[in-house]
Amino acid sequence: MAKVSAGFVVLPDTADAAEVQALVPFGNPRMLAHASGRPWLVGEWPPERVLVAAAGPTRLAVIGHCPVGVREALRRTAGQAQPLADDLATHQVLLMVRSNTASYRLLGQLYAESGVELDMPYLDDGVLEATLRVAAHEHAGPWRFKPLLADAMRGIVPEEVLRRSTKGEFGKDIRRGLRRNLPAILQTFADSALADRGLIAPATLRARLTAPQPDNTTTQTLENLLGCETWLRTATATATRRAPGAAPSEV
To answer: How far is CA 236 from its chain centroid?
Structure first.
C-alpha cells in the first residue's frame, strides 16, 4: 500500500503561521499540536508542490504529492466513518447542521467583506441542543407545519403566520433556469475534471439532468457539483501554471 506523503494544513493570515513553521527544521514535516484541538502538519516544501485556496481570512493549503488516488482515499474514509449519534434521526440532523454550517461560515466571511454581519439564530448552540432534546416525531407531522418551531414562536410571531400550512416554493424558477442553461451544463460535464478522476459518471449525470424533475433535489445537488467542478479545474490549472511539465496532481 502506498504511503501518503501529502498533508492538509489550515493556516491563518497572521504572523502565527510563520512562527509555527519556524519551529520545524527544514525538510522535516511533522504534526504539531495547536490550541484549536486540530493538529497542524507543518514543514517546508518547494513552491511548485503547494496549492493554496483562500476563503476570507482562512487559507487551505494542499502540500506535497499524494500517491493515493481520490477514490481510494474516499473508500478508506468511508470504512472508518462513525455515526454522529446512536439513532438515525439525530445523526441526520447533526449531519445536516455540519454540512450547512460549513457553507454558512464561508458565506458569513463574504458578507463581512462588505460590512454585513450574517446572523443564523437557528444554528445557535442553545437552539440546537433544545431541538435535539425533543423526540424526532414531534419536529413535524401531517397536520401542522413545523409544529415545534410554531410552538416556540407563539406570542412572538403573528398567529396567522403560525397557522400556515405551506412555505414559499421557488421550484418553477429553478426548473426554468435549468431548462434554459441545460446545454451549457451538459457541455461542462462532457469534459469533466471530476469524471477524469472517476468521481462522477457523465452518462448517468446526463440521464438524470435530462429526465423529468419531480422536485428540486437534483438541481440543488447540481449547484454543489458545479462548484466542485469549477474548483477542481481552477486548482488543476493553477498547479500546472506553477510547475510546467510536472506530473498531474492527485488532488
So the answer is: 19
Q: Is 50 left (phi over 0), alpha (psi -120 to 50) or beta?
A: beta
pLDDT above 90 (res 187): yes
Amino acid at 75: R
Find cell 483562500 and name the residue. Answer: 54
Q: Where are the beta strands (DSSP E) in the chain?
A: 7-12, 30-32, 40-42, 50-55, 58-63
Report CA-CA distances (Å) from 209 to 218, 222, 223. Answer: 7, 9, 12
Domain boundaries, the chain: 7-79, 85-134, 140-179
Strands 58-63 and 30-32: unpaired
Alpha-carbon dihedral angle through residues 39, 43, 49, 52, given to the nearest 10 degrees: 50
Q: What pLDDT is attached to residue 205?
A: 92
Measured CA to CA, the distance from residue 73 to residue 81 in angstroms comes to 12
Distance CA 208, CA 210 (A): 6
Q: How far, in Å, CA of 20 to CA of 155, rounded?
A: 52
Positive or negative, the CA dihedral 154, 159, 163, 166 is: negative
Q: How far apart are CA 199 and CA 231, in angstroms?
A: 14
pLDDT in tens, 96-127: 888 888 888 888 988 999 999 999 888 888 99
Chain mean position to CA 28: 31
Share of the chain above pLDDT 90, in %: 18
Q: Number of C-alpha atoms within 13 angstroms, CB side, residue 30?
A: 9
